[in-house]
UniProtKB/TrEMBL annotation:
The protein, known as: Oxidoreductase
Regions annotated as coiled coil: none
Residues annotated as domain FAD-binding: 6-340
Gene Ontology molecular-function annotations: FAD binding
Organism listed in the record: Streptosporangium roseum (strain ATCC 12428 / DSM 43021 / JCM 3005 / KCTC 9067 / NCIMB 10171 / NRRL 2505 / NI 9100)
PANTHER family the record matches: MONOOXYGENASE, OXIDOREDUCTASE-RELATED
Signal peptide: none
Length: 399
């Protein structure tokens, strides 16, 4: 096997999954992670279609099912809290059949447990510079140390530092969809029992939910906006933006927003996608959000990370470690799947965030009407069908 010594930047879902499969195929992966510890917390995510096969082949599908959020259902509410429409959890979340919903932090812990004894993790550090020297890549870390690897893979998310070093500035590849998202933990002051409440107003959507085994709840906010200037690591600035965006809003919004200051897991970012002509350059490749972020609005970011990591490791192994052949095979096998899932984002967010009072009024009326109709299950199936078509838009090879 050629090019066995591989550095992975980022210990998220994509990076950890890639480390697992590379190790299984006989490579020696090392994972560097900016955070001082493996990140926990985060919102609920869905594992669908081809991604279910990946976690099944990793032997963790039963554990993932055990850790399911078990959200029983959800309601759309008015400013006074009156439920306009309610539906079961799978319908509300666009799931069917074997699909599994799990908290991101729980999935991260399961994947890390698979790799922590066999993979070297360099925590509280990150890549500062990459230099290809012959058949190797010299890596300089922020800590000042240097090491040499055969290949480097960036699995470091939407704002990938690896992508910037190897491919160029972020602005060349990141497309802002015109919306922002924030999510964080809050006290469960509404006493929700595995239930989700969503409130929609013009250009702003707010929701809160509780999951199985959790004493608290999550609050999530989606709002439309022109591009905003801020540092993606400046929490204070992000919180001011969020507070300003929801100033004067009704329902439970003021109380939910008020919980952000004490939240240990505050998250804020644009809804953006990454589009690249190539996911590799020389001895460096990208996987997950760093290469083909579909945005949280797609509902497929985690599945893309799982499938992308599986395919990249498998194609490198099938090529005997030949990085050119392996990277090319990865592109051919995954490009259609990535594009199909990226197409979901812009369409989904337009249904999640309404642009005007009239659109909000009409949508709530239609939901209330549909909620009482005997054929509502068939109508909902038509709405979620594109998600499942995209989730299964790849035939996984058995590497």
């Amino acid at each position: 096997m050629r090019n066995k010594n591989i550095l992975i930047s980022g210990a998220g879902i994509a990076g950890t999954t890639l480390a697992y499969w590379l190790r299984r195929h006989g490579f020696t992966p090392t994972v560097v992670e900016r955070a001082p510890a493996i990140r926990e917390g985060g919102y609920k995510i869905d594992i669908r279609g081809a991604a279910l096969k990946v976690v099944e082949r990793m032997g963790v599908l039963d554990e993932i099912r055990r850790l399911r959020t078990d959200v029983r259902g959800g309601s759309i509410v008015t400013a006074t809290g009156r439920a306009v429409a309610s539906m079961d959890g799978d319908t509300f979340g666009g799931r069917e059949g074997e699909d599994a919903e799990i908290l991101r932090g729980d999935l991260q812990r399961v994947l890390h447990d698979l790799t922590r004894d066999e993979v070297e993790y360099l925590l509280d550090d990150s890549i500062a510079a990459l230099t290809e020297v012959g058949d190797e890549v010299k890596v300089t870390f922020d800590s000042g140390r240097t090491r040499v690897f055969d290949l480097v893979v960036g699995a470091d998310g939407l704002h990938s530092a690896t992508r910037a070093l190897a491919f160029g500035p972020e602005a060349r590849f990141v497309r802002d969809l015109g919306y922002y998202v924030s999510i964080f933990s809050v006290p469960n002051h509404l006493d929700l029992d595995r239930w989700e409440l969503t409130y929609v107003s013009p250009r702003r959507t707010s929701l809160t939910y509780s999951t199985a085994g959790a004493t608290g709840a999550k609050a999530m906010f989606l709002f439309a906006s022109e591009p905003l200037e801020y540092d993606h690591r400046d929490r204070d600035r992000q919180q001011r933006i969020l507070a300003d965006a929801y100033a004067g809003e009704g329902w439970e919004v003021p109380r939910l927003i008020g919980g952000m200051n004490d939240a240990p897991d505050f998250y804020f970012d644009s809804l953006s996608q990454v589009h690249m002509d190539r996911w590799s350059k020389g001895r460096t490749a990208l996987v997950g959000d760093a290469a083909y972020c579909a945005s949280p609005a797609s509902g497929q970011g985690t599945s893309l990370a799982l499938v992308g990591a599986y395919v990249l490791a498998g194609e490198l192994a099938a090529a005997g470690g030949d990085h050119r052949a392996g990277f090319d095979g990865y592109e051919r096998a995954l490009r259609h799947f990535a594009e199909q899932n990226q197409n979901l984002g812009p369409a989904n967010v337009k249904r999640m965030v309404m642009r005007s009072k009239s659109q909000v009024w009409f949508s709530l009326k239609m939901l209330a009407l549909m909620n009482r109709m005997p054929g509502k299950d068939r109508m909902m199936a038509k709405i979620v069908e594109p998600i499942h078509r995209a989730a299964t838009a790849i035939a996984l090879s058995d590497y």
